[in-house]
């Protein structure tokens, strides 16, 4: 499944979790991210720490650079 098509990182994380039939706690453990941090990421609340972002990127089978470019750069740069 290609999570890059999702509008936000949180939506991509949720799609990944549902694709694997994980409950949130199971997904957090699978991604090796603390539960509260995973929950904030999935709900698009605040900005994740770079360590957690790297772990989420690995779970999504993406590089940290890809995640940052896709979901954390401004819209003008995404279109270039």
UniProtKB/TrEMBL annotation:
CDD domains: HTH_XRE (cd00093). Residues 13-67 form the HTH cro/C1-type domain. Pfam families: HTH_3 (PF01381). One of its GO terms (molecular function) is DNA binding. SMART domains: HTH_XRE. InterPro entries: Cro/C1-type_HTH, Lambda_DNA-bd_dom_sf. Coiled coil: none annotated. Signal peptide: none annotated. This is Helix-turn-helix. It comes from Weissella hellenica.
């Amino acid at each position: 499944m290609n999570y890059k098509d999702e509008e936000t990182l949180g939506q991509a994380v949720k799609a990944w979790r549902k694709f694997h039939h994980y409950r949130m706690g199971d997904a957090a453990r699978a991604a090796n991210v603390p539960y509260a941090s995973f929950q904030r990421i999935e709900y698009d609340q605040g900005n994740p720490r770079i360590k957690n972002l790297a772990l989420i990127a690995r779970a999504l089978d993406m590089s940290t650079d890809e995640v940052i470019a896709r979901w954390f750069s401004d819209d003008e740069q995404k279109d270039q």
